[in-house]
Amino acid sequence: MILGLAVACALAALLPALLFRRNLGLYAPPPPMQGDRPAISILIPARDEEGAIRGAVEAALTSEGAEIEVIVLDDHSEDRTAAIVREIAARDPRARLEPAPPLPAGWNGKQHACAVLGRLAHSPLLLFVDADVRLAPDGAARAAAFLAASGADLASGVPRQETVTLLERLLIPLIHFVLLGFLPIERMRRARHPAYGAGCGQLFLARREAYEKAGGHAAIRASLHDGVALPRAFRRAGFSTDLFDATTVATCRMYRGAGEVWRGLSKNATEGLAAPEKIVPATLLLLAGQVMPPLLLLLGSGWVLIPAAIGTATAYLPRLAAVRRFRQPLDGALLHPLGISIFLVLQWVALGRKMLGRPAGWKGRTYGASVS
After folding, report:
1. Which of 31, 217, 265, 301 lies 20 to 30 Å from 225, alpha-carbon distance?
2. Nearest alpha carbon to residue 100 among 265, 217, 213, 254
3. How far apart are the first and last CA of the chain?
4. Is the dihedral of CA 293, 298, 300, 304 positive or negative?
5. How many CB atoms neighbour CB 334 within 10 A?
6. Cα angle: 142, vertex 193, 118; to 5 degrees
7. Whose CA is closest to 121, among 72, 75, 81?
């Protein structure tokens, strides 16, 4: 019985490992920009971001190979966010600050801010980036080059993630593992079914015409998970979405400290793996393939050790490949089973919060269980 379990766990590890390896070649960095300089509106929603906003705006203003405007929407900040942007805008007319109107009922704050930014923009390409994202000088132009080459209407990628504290190093790198280990990119590019919609909410580049026809962020007004919701909205409207490796396009420190990591990842978990219809199979697959093989290798004996060793090696291969490719921390990869275990606890806690009707909180706002 234990031997059969070990074999089953090795197979559960093999499936995402094979898909991850296949996807690594498909999830490619964007090409350099060639030809005419594209016109791009770089759009940054900001709420109480005085520690990050200067770096985001100044990095955006170093953009090369494109005609840019940088618009920051101050979403009722209570710190120096607006003052910092005004200071930068006084020196560089390509940057400007706009105030956010009051948040309407039923809207998530970020989606409302992005919807307003979309209306304020003047360019045919809309590049939405979070306030903690730092674009590389050629980042915006290369993202536009990818969009042109792919023919997609919306493109996204995961920036290089800066991780400092232990929980950041354990959980944040799992973004790449889940994305590339469980999304068949080949099928995503052939089909427009909403189920294949995926992206990273830190960085989205959209064709303005498609964005408006798809309803833009208004189509996902209640969502806390634009990384999934926005590509699916585009696909429901008949448009195509795609992914590129944004490691060299931008950097981001997503959360700072264990508390932010937990609150940030759990606030939108029920729109992803913690959705009631997904959480049980996701938990079984991740426990079987990523946690059980190392345990069986440590505690098993005899013939059990062979499939346990194969499963353990297979589970670690994607994480070790990601260390090199995406510049991830080695310690987080070596503690992969622990990271997966904490990640699953977070998913179940988030689902429990939703089932109990407890609101999710972020940036001083609370959102009811119906929109979490």
Report:
1. 31
2. 217
3. 41
4. positive
5. 14
6. 45
7. 72
Helix intervals (H) in 238-278 = 258-267
Read off the tokens for 275.
């959705």
Non-local CB neighbours of 351 within 8 Å, separated by 6+ positions? 269, 270, 274, 276, 279
Task: Give per-residue pLDDT as tens, 197-207.
Answer: 999 999 999 99
How far CA 364 is from CA of 76, 79, 80, 137, 358, in Å, comes to: 11, 13, 16, 33, 15
Residue 362 CA neighbour count, 13 Å, CB half: 23
pTM of the predicted model, to two decimals? Answer: 0.94
d(CA 178, CA 176): 6
- Characterize the bridge pairing of strands 39-46 and 67-74: parallel
Q: How many angstroms separate the Cα of 45 from the Cα of each of 37, 114, 148, 151, 355?
A: 25, 6, 25, 27, 30
Question: In which band, very low, low, confident or very high, does the pLDDT at 369 lie, cut at 50, 70 and 90?
Answer: very low
Residues 26-256, CATH architecture: Alpha-Beta Complex (3.90)
- Rounded to whole angstroms, the Cα distance separating 74 from 99 reads 5
What tokens does 245 get?
A: 């490796």
Could you tell me if residue 75 is left (phi over 0), alpha (psi between -120 and 50 degrees) or otherwise beta?
Answer: beta
